[in-house]
Amino acid sequence: MNKVLIIGAGGVSNVVVHKCAALPEVFGQIILASRTKSKCDIIAKSVNEKFGVEILTEQLDADQTANTVALIKKHSPKLVINVALPYQDLVIMDACLETGVDYLDTANYEPKDEAKFEYKWQWAYQDKFKEAGLMALLGSGFDPGVTNMFCAYAQKHLFDEIHTIDIVDCNGGDHGKAFATNFNPEINIREITARGRYWEDGEWKSTDPLAVKQDFDFPGVGERKMYLMYHEEMESLCQNIKGLKRIRFWMTFGEEYLTHLRVIQNLGLNRIDEVDYKGQKIVPLEFLKRLLPDPGSLAANYTGKTSIGCVIEGLKDGKKVRKFIYNICDHQETYKEVGSQAVSYTTGVPAMIGAKMILEGHWKKEGVYNMEQLDPDLFMDDLNKYGLPWHVEEWSSSVE
Ligand code: NDP
């Protein structure tokens, strides 16, 4: 029987736990651990009501390797699914190495005091995981995650050569709040306020934050303005997609959201360094997170859809081809199914499928892997089976 330890009990975790519990033949026993145990208990209760499955819950501060090692030893899982925050990635990877357990996450490691979005720290674990005969699967969410798989699938089946990739990400939903982020506010605001970057002809080029924009007609949503920004999956894709000349990432934002963001920046509330307040050290962005709605709480009133995919250009049989591979996901449907909004759902489902691929042996390898380094076929089949159906279309207009 496969036992898994899931760390973190936020919006994404709620989806992962529900989806794993619905497949007892793959995930025989689930232990859910997080900093605040009561949040694990709420998820466990919902899973029990829906599927009659018992989830064991534990308190864990995964900033401490010793605690994490002790918890892994107590339960001896086959795999640890890390859906806590990117700050915990390295501690959890260390704990997996010490206890001989495979590892999976959905976001790259971030140092608390610097916004980097780089894989270098986790890639440095390559030899250690290889030598231990263990696997670390990085970025098994939607973007990174499914977008990497779309590219791997295109490389395997749709193109002889891929020249350009534009990843386009639209949340066309409405949560009815003046300002809220769809996943962890600290990570989200760090990402969006960073300088834009894209990769072209072998080098990184940068732009001012959200300075480059254009309209795009998103299937299921309609025309929206999308902004060029940096996103972590580009770092591995530019190395693993052969013949690639350019890769960019675009995300949509509404005017209201951007106005709030501008004010937050102007006031310095997005700072991630410590400031002194009445003799106490506080990090403004951590404080802001306290004030903003919990992304999970948006789910009940969320309407509309997400529409995310990859516009890919290249050659097939000597001819120029442009394809769009994408998924559309409906906030209300995902709420009905697992009590989460679509941004958590589109991240949690691929985390479950990535874990399933490892546990069933299809992807069981030694070392540290990004998603596109693995065979996409079974994963893509499972996206269709487990709630994230995808489509491929000839795409008439290029992304300027
Ligand atoms: P949330 O903030 O909702 O949840 C994070 C959870 O981690 C909380 O339960 C939190 O506990 C727990 N946690 C934080 N620190 C620790 C710690 N030291 N020890 C144990 N548990 C801890 O985040 P999300 O669910 O929105 O996101 C989860 C992950 O998914 C993030 O890494 C995010 O970047 C990633 N993500 C990836 C996407 C993708 O497409 N690849 C898209 C969206 C998110 P507490 O409740 O006590 O704060």
Automatic annotation (TrEMBL):
<dbReference type="Pfam" id="PF16653">
    <property type="entry name" value="Sacchrp_dh_C"/>
</dbReference>
<dbReference type="InterPro" id="IPR005097">
    <property type="entry name" value="Sacchrp_dh_NADP-bd"/>
</dbReference>
<dbReference type="InterPro" id="IPR032095">
    <property type="entry name" value="Sacchrp_dh-like_C"/>
</dbReference>
<feature type="domain" description="Saccharopine dehydrogenase NADP binding">
    <location>
        <begin position="4"/>
        <end position="137"/>
    </location>
</feature>
<feature type="domain" description="Saccharopine dehydrogenase-like C-terminal">
    <location>
        <begin position="141"/>
        <end position="388"/>
    </location>
</feature>
<dbReference type="InterPro" id="IPR036291">
    <property type="entry name" value="NAD(P)-bd_dom_sf"/>
</dbReference>
<dbReference type="Pfam" id="PF03435">
    <property type="entry name" value="Sacchrp_dh_NADP"/>
</dbReference>
<protein>
    <submittedName>
        <fullName>Saccharopine dehydrogenase</fullName>
    </submittedName>
</protein>
